[in-house]
Predict the structure.
Amino acid sequence: MKPLIAIAGVLKEPHPDAAFTYRECFVNEAYTTQLEKAGALPFILPYLKTEDIEEQLAPFDALLVPGGADFSPVYYHEEKKEYTVIPDDLMDNYQLELIKKARSLGKWVFGICRGFQGLNIVCGGTLFQDISAERPDSLSHMRKDSPYKPVHKVKIEKDSHLFKAFGNTELEVNSLHHQGIKTLGKNLKAIAYSEDGIVEGFEGNKILAVQWHPEALTSPFFEYIVSLLK
């Protein structure tokens, strides 16, 4: 039987000219396509009240939290700075509760970009609200001009899930984030770094997350995470 993977839906406000005023709940098609190719059955989770999350997650083998906008710094006990993108508290609260509940149920949780940052927050870590402002010596990590091709290298720890997935200690990745990990969450192990020392991957007990976007690259990442569920 194919593993069932729940993907946290991203909430989006309607366009000002739209006929309907409903929010949209979606994920980029690349996530579902990559997971299906890897041998899993993906499902998009819509926003629900937090008291229903345990029942919502019950049928699934794992949770994937995809990319998206910034999390509110309130969740890691900082004041919002001028360069933080206006957060969506409804989506923030729902996705963070999803992560907490999935972990309490003993399910695998995978994070990509925003999901990587959300997992770090849930585990008690903090973020640079803007890498270029708070770490001016850093690389350019927000490369919207090159979403489908690598723009910098990461170093991968040998004794790690990412080494098992990629079979290498060095990897070229794309990069579309302006925030990053400042302090790593409890019981997480950093397993990938960019050349400027920014954490690009970590793992923990049934946790694996990366800061880049493997769904936009030719990558064994999805095949590997699906293999963990079999």
Notes: Helices lie at 29-37, 53-57, 89-104, 114-122, 131-134, 161-166, 221-227. The chain has a mean pLDDT of 96.
